[in-house]
Amino acid sequence: MNTNLTTISSDSSVHQAIDLMVAKDISGLPVVDNDGNLCGMLTEGDLMRRIEFGSGRHSGTEGQAASLVDYDTYIRSHSWRVSDLMTSSLVSVAPNAPAAAVAEAMFAHKVKRVPVVEGTRLLGIISRVDLLRGIAGVPANSVASGDDALGRAIRARLQADLGLDGDRIKVSVEDSRAVLEGTVSSELERRAIRVLVENVRGVAGFIDRLSVAA
User: In angstroms, what CA-CA distances link 91 with 39, 94, 185?
Assistant: First the structure.
């Protein structure tokens, strides 16, 4: 995660936020209160919506009642206060969250970055680029040499990563080539097993004798 953060106060103006984003070449700012607690995020999208919202009135014929005014939209399109434009309903993760959980949160909520918090205290920000850098920098798994050691490593990974035990999937290794037999529930599960095996260092090949349950 990135701990060298540029934050902005919830009481700051939109002009200050724009100046910070341009100066730092960033697309989002964590918004904090006077005690340093995270209370929202302000992004380029939030600022662009301020322009797109227009007058804050629903489309309709001229002369319609004032009750048709969308007050939330009006505030977001007219206010110059960060607290009125920021997104306060945040997706955040704990400092010990695994990378897979962070990626899943980004995908599920369609966000490009997530704050890392401990309680309400902001510790850092993880972006999609940070995750990609982490993946690129992770070396292949190191295991002891020898067919028996490779077999034990694959079986352990099948159980730990995919929840597959030896009753379903039989693993043997011959001349560093992994042979897997058994029945899987879907082609997707089969592909996941292939990816897992290919990421165990020392495996020279994968012989797929798995069958998909009818």
Answer: 11, 11, 32
Structure confidence by residue, pLDDT tens digits, 180-192: 999 999 999 999 9
φ, ψ (nearest 5 deg) of residue 26: -125, 160
Q: Residue 174 in 3-state DSSP?
A: strand
Q: How far is Cα 88 from Cα 41, in angstroms, rounded to an integer? A: 7
CA–CA distance, 177 with 205 (Å, rounded to integer): 4
pLDDT digits (tens, 9 = 90+) for 163-211: 887 788 999 999 999 999 999 999 999 999 999 999 888 899 999 999 9
pTM above 0.85, yes or no: no
**Distance separating alpha carbons of residues 28 and 47, to the nearest angstrom:** 10
**Is 81 in contact with 14 (CB distance < 8 Å)?**
yes
Alpha-carbon gap, residue 101 to 2, rounded angstroms: 17
> Would you list the DSSP string of 52-120?
HTTTSB-S--TT--GGGB-HHHHHHHH--BHHHHSB-S---B-TT--HHHHHHHHHHHT-SEEEEEETT
∠ Cα 7 11 13 (to 5°): 80
